[in-house]
Amino acid sequence: DPYAQLLLEAMKQSGCTVFNDRHFSCENCDGCVSGGFDSTTSQIVLCQNNIRHQSHMNRVVTHELIHAFDHCRAHVDWFKNVKHLACSEIRAANLSGDCTLMNEIARFKFGLKRHHQTCVRDRAIRSILAVRKVSKETAEKAVDEVFDACFNDLEPFGRIPHNKSDAKRAYRDFQNRDRYNSNL
């Protein structure tokens, strides 16, 4: 999957190499949660009982790898600073494919004006509420306060990958990033 390839390469370049047998765990999960990132163990949990299709698993892996990338490159205070969590959830919803038009049509949610931003905001709030015991108002406030900066933080993709072709292009650009800079 080009989304995962890019994130794994970016983490490696940031000094956080991911080992499949160490950093991924498949488990049965409660409710309708599909996965999660455990910052204390730097492990991505995939909920094998709630993931039914490869495309869904690819999105979950990408979403959680974005959290792992954020954990690697920034000093994220996952437990005490809800704004840090909000930022990573915004980035994950924005860059993982969670809010593609096809996914939104499948959820019977679609609109024309600023729909992608609305989806990202709603999914970030929903994710915060799923992992932290905070009020909906607290989650909404945290998302709103950091939304613009975090929505526009496109690292390591450099663009919002709306489909696999965009993700492949972003991966190629990422691989060639240093080559272009060395010629300046």
Automatic annotation (TrEMBL):
Record's InterPro entries? Peptidase_M76_ATP23
**What are the alphabetically sorted keywords of the record?**
Hydrolase, Metal-binding, Metalloprotease, Protease
Task: Specify one Pfam family.
Answer: Peptidase_M76
Enzyme Commission number(s) from the entry: 3.4.24.-
Q: Which cellular components does GO assign to this protein?
A: mitochondrion
Which BP terms does GO give this entry? mitochondrial protein processing; mitochondrial proton-transporting ATP synthase complex assembly
What name does UniProt use for this protein?
Answer: Mitochondrial inner membrane protease ATP23
Q: Which organism is it from?
A: Struthio camelus australis
